[in-house]
Amino acid sequence: MVKVDRIEHIVTIPEGVSAEISEDGVVTVNGPKGSLSRTFVSTFIEMFQDGSGITVRVDVPRRKQRALAGTWNAHLSNMVKGVSDGFTYNLKAFYSHFPMTLAVNGDIFNVNNYFGERVPRAAKILSGVNVKVSNKTEITVSGIDKEAVGQTAANIERCTTIKNRDRRVFQDGIYLLNKE
């Protein structure tokens, strides 16, 4: 088996986006949509900034070190994409008999009249995420942090899970249509 002596991932930073690496491992990325910061701490992975972007480097990596370097690369790429373009998830509510009503109240997403239930179901909206309801059934979740946007969409989708019924027959709920 061939042993690799160095792994390098380069995250390019486009025009209008700036990145800073502090001494304690906090990376701050600023762009037209906002600012994101995240802590990257490891004893064996080096991260430094050069002219074209941020370089993540591991010398004589083992399997877990190589995997962690790839994870850091993905996190940095998501941060750069988030502050330049943002992330948008589109969901849609489907129902057959009881029309559900959807509402956003601060940081809580409410689903009323789901399967004719009297108690509304609720999902938590994480900070920094915008949720909009349009046409009574279409939900748009957007923001600059990919993890927060994805978790909010999952919370909304999960709040309409049904129990003790056949999922093949009772298909009412809120489902993810696409990610942008």
Describe the protein's architecture and organization.
With 180 residues, this protein is an alpha+beta fold. It folds into two domains: 6-84, Outer Surface Protein A, domain 3, CATH 3.90.930.12; 87-179, Ribosomal protein L6 (Outer Surface Protein A, domain 3, Alpha-Beta Complex). It has helices at residues 63-84, 146-158; strands at 6-12, 18-21, 26-30, 35-39, 45-49, 53-59, 87-94, 101-105, 108-112, 121-124, 129-134, 138-143, 173-179. The strands form four sheets. Strands 11-12-7-13 form a four-stranded antiparallel beta sheet, with helices on one face. A hairpin with a 4-residue loop joins β2 (18-21) and β3 (26-30). The mean pLDDT is 91.
List its traits.
Outer Surface Protein A, domain 3; 180 residues; alpha+beta; three-stranded antiparallel beta sheet; 2 domains
Q: Compute the separation of the termini in Å.
A: 40 Å
Mean pLDDT figure = 91
Question: Total number of helical segments?
Answer: 2
Question: Structural class from helices and strands?
Answer: alpha+beta
CATH class category label of the largest domain: Alpha Beta
CATH architecture call of the largest domain:
Alpha-Beta Complex
Unreliable spans are none
Major beta sheet, strand line-up:
11-12-7-13
Oligomer classification: single chain
Report on the biggest sheet: 4 strands, antiparallel
Q: What is the CATH superfamily classification of the largest domain?
A: Ribosomal protein L6
Q: What is the share of helical residues?
A: 10-25%
